Amino acid sequence: xxxxxxxxxxxxxxxxxxxxxxxxxxxxxxxxxxxxxxxxxxxxxxxxxxxxxxxxxxxxxxxxxxxxxxxxxxxxxxxxxxxxxxxxxxxxxxxxxxxxxxxxxxxxxxxxxxxxxxxxxxxxxxxxxxxxxxxxxxxxxxxxxxxxxxxxxxxxxxxxxxxxxxxxxxxxxxxxxxxxxxxxxxxxxxxxxxxxxxxxxxxxxxxxxxxxxxxxxxxxxxxxxxxxxxxxxxxxxxxxxxxxxxxxxxxxxxxxxxxxxxxxxxxxxxxxxxxxxxxxxxxxxxxxxxxxxxxxxxxxxxxxxxxxxxxxxxxxxxxxxxxxxxxxxxxxxxxxxxxxxxxxxxxxxxxxxxx
Length: 355
Description:
Structural class: alpha+beta
């Protein structure tokens, strides 16, 4: 078996790394038998959830961590060097595979393809002390985990998510993202999010599909019927039906691309570890994203009334999770439960190769 086929085996596994809305914000360039380049990009130009590129940078970090774990199956170390791409929204990572007798297969290898998003209710049994310890250890010394658990705190968190969902569902810029990334009528999708994975019942899903034909139609439905049905099913009920919510926090404020990439590597270790423990997870990033926009006074929507709503939500979010001296970089909910039947898959490797 050639060394080049080893690189392909590593990338076949690494392409299963998570990315926002399954954008798969990377392409691969094979150089020789031990080297390849990751061409990364962010979605700031057309995604209201990624206006500063940081969520995509976290995704790229998750990819690099997955590459390192996949490489461990072959007894090699994946050394990463980032170089300037010459463009603000593009990123270049040179990867060199180095034989290392100290490298042994990672226990997380088997979780790479199993890991997925579960948007439906989970079991409410509390996390055990051993599960928490394993997850806190997974993020590394530069990060800590805040646990939001217990019925009262989960209720507060679910209410925060419910309120954030109204901002998300009434924003024209968010509509454009949702219209583009939802793959209707499927359980699996190579490049989008299947509608069957959204976590709503058949009647609500049918209404959503009808309304999302145009922003005018969706606005009319929001005015006449409100947004409570999808918010209840996608945010409030799941927010209570879980073991806990969590916030991964950096001990030092992230400022550079490399800081956010490092955070993404920690997030992927956390996610793969909880998968190995038989747990499931759903990201909950909108409170962090829009709170950051408010704090930085970033213009994120042309709907002026939503800026005031976002400021009030930022205050609610700050009371719950912006405390202490650490800096939130990722948030989600988790618990015991089955792996989601409907899920995003990945583009074939040949589509991700760049020449």
